[in-house]
């Protein structure tokens, strides 16, 4: 199975990711509960749940940053670097799931 965005080179070409539904906001400032930390040790599948929530949270933040850039302008380099980092994490994650 091909990796999403695999045909995109770094020579200035871009890509578009579309989110099919709304993402529930995750408050990173909210204190995490210790029961969640200890439960991840008891049930390793929760690590995958937390990772997927982190991906959704980063995608939501990236979307907000893109909207802010589109409305106010400014330097695109920080947004592009954030996108490339997210793309790299997503690519590795997809490859790991395929295996």
Automatic annotation (TrEMBL):
It comes from the Eukaryota. This is Hemerythrin-like domain-containing protein. It comes from Salix udensis.
């Amino acid at each position: 199975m091909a990796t999403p965005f695999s045909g995109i080179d770094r020579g200035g070409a871009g890509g578009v990711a579309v989110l099919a539904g709304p993402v529930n906001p995750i408050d990173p400032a909210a204190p995490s509960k210790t029961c969640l930390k200890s439960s991840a040790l008891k049930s390793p599948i929760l690590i995958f749940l937390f990772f997927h929530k982190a991906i959704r949270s980063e995608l939501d933040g990236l979307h907000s940053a893109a909207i802010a850039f589109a409305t106010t302008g400014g330097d695109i380099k920080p947004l592009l670097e954030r996108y490339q980092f997210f793309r790299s994490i997503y690519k590795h994650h997809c490859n790991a799931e395929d295996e």
